[in-house]
Amino acid sequence: MTPEIALVLFILALAIILLVTEWIPMEAVALLALGAVALTELVSTTEALSGFSNPAVVTVWAVFILSGGLTRTGVANVIGRFVLKVAGRREAFIVLVIMVSAGVMSAFMNNVAVAALMLPVVMDIARQTGHAPSRLLMPLAYGSLLGGLTTLIGTPPNILVSEVLRENGMIPFKLFDYTPVGVLIMLAGTAFMVLIGRHLLPAQNVAREYAPSKNADLRDQYDLRERMFLLRVPPESMLVGKTLAESRMGSALDLNVVGIVREGETKRAPDPSTVLAAGDCLLVGGRLARMQELKDWRQLVFEEESFDINQLFSKDMNMAEVRVRPGSPFTGKTLYEIGFQNRFKLSVLALRRGAKLRRTKLPEILLRAKDVLLVLGPEERLEKLKSAPGCEQFRYVSRPELTEVYHLHERLLVVSIPPDSTLTGKTLKESRLGDALSMRVLCIIREGHKLCMPDPEESLRAGDRLAVLAKKEDFFVLQGLEGLQVDREIVPDLAELESEHVGMMEAVLAPRTRLAGMTLRQLHFREKYGLRVLAIWREGRAYRSNLRDMALRLGDAFLMYGPRDRLQLLGQEPDFIVLTEAAQEAPRLEKAYVSMIVMGAVLLPVILGLVPIYIAAVIGAACMVITRCLTMEEAYRAIEWKAVFLIAGMLPLGTALDQTGAAKYLASGVVAMVGPFGPLAVIFGLMALTFLATCIIPTAALVVLMAPIALSTSADLGLSPYATMMAIAMAASASFMTPISHPANVLVMGPGGYRFIDYIKVGLPLSIVVLIVVLIFLPFFWPLV
C-alpha cells in the first residue's frame, strides 16, 4: 500500500464515520472531504471543484426543478385521485395500485416528491376504507423507490452511474437503458409486497386504529383520552378575571386548555387572551401529576428582608449593558433561541426598548435592533461580549443605575427552602422554577457563602436562600392554580372538541424543511400558526406532554388542533405536509398540461439522442419557471440542496480513489474474496456490499465511492463494466432496510407508526428479492463478459 492510498483511505474512513454519526451535517462532511483531497494534493484544485460543474450534479438539480413543476401543477394530484377511484376496498388491490402509481410517477419525478404528494392521498384512502395506514404507507415509500430504478432520471444514483461511465471514456447509459431490469425489479418488488410484505407490517396499533368516516380516529390514534381531564375554576379562585396566558397553566404546568365549558356552552380552542370566569370547566390536556409540583413551589418561603443589589457585585462579578446592533443575527430571535446564557455564560436581567422596560419573561421576547440588554456575569465573560457579533455600545453600569434606570429592586426577592421541602436534592433545572414562575435565580446564599449565577445543574439544599428576579404576583397565581378542582366524576367527551369551525388534523415535516432540530418553543408555533400541537407520534408511540421542548425530527407526525381556517393555511406552508388532501394548497391545475408538455419536450430529444440529458434538463427547468408552472422561489425549494452539495463534494474523493490506485486496491480485495466463484459471485458481492452500505451512507455518496471500485473490479476480472455499474445502481437505489437509508422511508415513519424493526422485517427480504432478480435477469440484457 502506497502512502497516497493510505492517505485517501484514511480520508474515506473519516468521511464515512462522520456521515454515519452525523456529528456534523453530511453536506459539510462532503465539502470537508473535497478540501482534504485538494490540500493533500491527491487531486488538483481544478478537479476538486469540478464536482459543482459535473453534468451529473447539473442533471440532478435540474430534474428536481422539473419534478417540482409537475408537482406544483397538480399532475400527481390527478393521478392520486385516479388511485382513490380505482383502488376499491381490498387491501391487496389497494397496495398494488398505490405501488404501481407511485412507481410510474417516480420514473420521471423525484421519488421523495412522489412519496410526499401521495402521502395525503394514501391517508385519505386509509380513512375511507378502514385499513390501517401502516399497511399502506411503507408500500408507498417502496413503490416510489422501485419506480426510480426504471429510468435514467428516476433517481440520482442512476444519473451518477451514467456520468461515471462517460468520464471513463465509455458510452453512458441512456434514458431507458435502466428500464428492462428496473421494470422487472419493480414488478417483482410489487408482487412481493402485495403477496407477502404487507403481512409483515403491523396490521394495526391499538393507539392508531383507523376507521372510515370518523374524526374520532385521530383522538383514538394519539390516545388523547389518557391525558385529558377536567378542571373547575371555583368562584373564589384568584384566577377569575385573568386570561389563560396570565394563569400560566401552559408555562408552569405544561397543561393545554383545549376547551372551556361555560354555562352549558363549549368554547373550543380558546386563545391565550380568553378571560377565565367563576365556574368555568376547563378541558385540559397534560399530566395530572404536574399539579403535584404546585406543592413544591408553594413550599418556598418569602423573606421580608430585601436583597441588596450591591451584593451581586464582587471582584469577579459585574454588570454591563450592550445594544443589539442593526442587522445583528440576534434580531428576530429570542434569548432562548440564541442560547444566550449557554453561549456567553452571562445572565440577562433586563431589556430596554426605547422607554419600555422589561424584567420578566425575557427568554420569550423577540429581540429587535437597538434593544439594550442589562447583563450580569464574570468580568472576563463581559469583556468577550464587547466583540460579540451583533452587539455594540458596550459599557459597564453603575450601581445607582440599577435602581434609578432599571428598577431592579422592584423585582429582586429572597425566597428560602424549608428543611422539609421536596425541592431539596433537585437541581435548579429539575425544579422548573424558571419555567413555572419566570424566576431567574441570581444567587444562592448557602451557609454564609454566595454562589452567584449558579449552574442549572446545581442541587438545592434545605436552608438555601435564593436571590431571584421575579414578580410576587406570579406566586399568587400559583395559589389560584392550586385551588383548581379536578373533576374526576365526569368523563371528558372528546367529540365536543370539534365543530364546524374547529377541528384536528395530522401533519408531518416536509422532506426539505428547515425546522428539523428546532423546538415548538423556538418556532413560537402557537403564536405563528394559531394552532396547538396536542401530540407528536414518534417511533411507534404518542407523546402528549413536554412537547414545547422536544426537538422536531423528520418522520414525526403532529396532531394539530385549532380553527379550521388556520388548519387550511398550514397546508400552504412549505415546511409541512398535511395528511388530508383537501387541506393542501390548491395546485395550479391550469398549468398541468403545460408542465407535461415541457417534460415531454425534455425527454423526446434525449430519447432520440439529439441532446444530452443535462442540457435538456436545464432548459426544461428554465421553461418550468418561464411558463409559471412554478415560481423561482418554488424552484429553489424544489432542489434538494443537501443531495447537490453531497454529490459535488464527494465526487473529488471518488476521483482520488481512482487516481491514487485506492479503488484498484479495494477491488483486489473483492476479487480475492469472490473472484474465484465466477462473474455472478462478483456481482453478488458488490451488490451485497452496496445494500449494507445504504443503511448508513447516503445513496448518492455511496455510488460515488462504489463506482471506481466496481470499474476496477470489472477491469481486473474482464467483466463488462456496464453490467457491474448497472448492478451498483440498482443496489444503491433499492434503499429499503432502514428508515434512515432514504428520505422517503423517513417521511412515512411517523404517519405509519413504524418502528425501526419494521423496516428490517420488510426491507431485508425485499432487498433479497431485488438481488435475486438482478442475478437472474441482468445477464440477459447486459452480458457479464
Question: Topology of this protein?
Answer:
Elements: H1 3-21, H2 26-39, H3 45-49, H4 55-72, H5 75-86, H6 91-106, H7 111-129, H8 137-148, H9 156-167, H10 179-200, H11 216-221, E1 228-232, H12 244-247, H13 249-253, E2 256-262, E3 265-268, E4 281-285, H14 290-298, E5 301-302, E6 317-324, H15 335-338, H16 340-344, E7 347-353, E8 356-358, E9 372-378, H17 379-386, E10 391-396, H18 399-404, E11 412-416, H19 428-431, H20 433-437, E12 440-446, E13 449-452, E14 465-469, H21 472-482, E15 485-487, E16 502-509, H22 520-523, H23 525-529, E17 532-538, E18 541-543, E19 557-563, H24 564-570, E20 576-578, H25 592-607, H26 613-626, H27 632-638, H28 641-659, H29 662-674, H30 679-694, H31 699-717, H32 721-733, H33 743-747, H34 749-752, H35 756-781
Antiparallel strand pairs: 1-4, 1-15, 2-3, 2-4, 5-11, 6-9, 6-10, 7-8, 7-9, 11-14, 12-13, 12-14, 16-19, 16-20, 17-18, 17-19
Keywords:
single chain, 785 residues, alpha+beta, Alpha-Beta Plaits, five-stranded antiparallel sheet, 35 helices, 20 strands, globular
3D structure, described in words:
This protein is α+β, with helices and mostly antiparallel strands and about 775 residues long. Among the domains are: about 310-410, Alpha-Beta Plaits, CATH 3.30.70.1450; about 500-585, 2-Layer Sandwich (Alpha-Beta Plaits). About 50% of the residues lie in helices and about 15% in strands. It contains 35 helices and 20 strands. The strands form four sheets. A five-stranded antiparallel beta sheet has the order 3-2-4-1-15, with no helix packed on it.
